[in-house]
Amino acid sequence: MTLEIGTDAPSFTLKTKTPEGLKDISLADFHGKSSVVILFFPFAFTSVCTAETCSVRDDLASYQNLNAQVLGISVDSPFAQEAMALKEGLNFSLLSDFNKEVSKSYGVLYEDFIGFQGVSKRSAFVVSREGKIAFAWSSDDPKQLPDFSAIKKAIQALSDQDRSLLYLKDLIKLDEGKYIKI
Prior knowledge:
Order of helices and strands: EEEHHEHEHEEEEHH
Number of strands: 9
Structural class: alpha/beta
Strand content: 25-35%
């Protein structure tokens, strides 16, 4: 399943582990309030995933200044994610897609990843306050990081009051009326 810009983002409720215990976070929690950056990553504690999440940690204020929340999602348990968040000082929520349903609904689940069945592909989505996909990127190469400047540009376009989601789609149209498949 390829998610197209302007389509409804698949809804989800996933667990995160906080010092107070397990907590549910839903995409719907942000509807009407803020844009959401969803970053899928293969595994906690791996070098590229750690580099990605620490990069976001170090630049979180720029997302917050654009009224965007950042959510990291992997198929790790919430307990492994909490350990990573504590070790790396992560300042955004990591959500456990342990049952692999959200990764599948976003079309970013490896069938086989170095011998493991059902691992999230490194992917990035921006969801508008209205719950629409405004940016979508996924890579079969787990070492490739998303283009964070492109993510911020998509958020900025959503933040501008005079730009509608349809106008955003027009900005990134390619020849022959096809949209960028990212």
